[in-house]
Amino acid sequence: MAIMEIDTATQKKIRKEVGDSFTDRYRRVGEIAGLKARRLDLYVAYMNSRWPKGQSTSYATEWADRFIRGTEVARSDLAGVRLLEKLNKEIL
To answer: Cα–Cα distance between 35 and 49 in angstroms, integer?
Structure first.
């Protein structure tokens, strides 16, 4: 992803490549919670798909805990359950 910034020295717009901060944050939260391999990938994909504009770290941590305990389906609404079913087929 790219963003436009103003170079302070030249005052010209410059294009700056940046990583997906939500994906990076979700991956770190999931790793800290103990998610690994495909379960971690599933968690990150779910969070990015379900909330494309991001969620707070505390809410992301709550969801990582649900994935660790295996309660993510039981704790989801219908839209979340359908998304999990779709992602499970793609990732697991």
So the answer is: 18
Q: Which letter, b or e, does each residue of 5-42 get, where b requires 16 or more Cβ atoms within 10 Å of its Cβ?
A: eeeeeeeeeeeeeeeeebeebbbebbeebebeeebbbb
The string of DSSP letters for 33-58 reads: HT--HHHHHHHHHHHHHH-TT---HH
Structure token digits, residue 58 = 């505390």
Read off the pTM.
0.77
Strands (E), the chain: 2-6, 13-17
Q: What is the pLDDT of residues 19-62, one digit of tens each?
A: 568 899 999 999 999 999 999 999 999 999 999 888 999 999 99
Distance CA 3, CA 18 (A): 7
Q: Does 92 or 72 have the greater pLDDT score?
A: 72
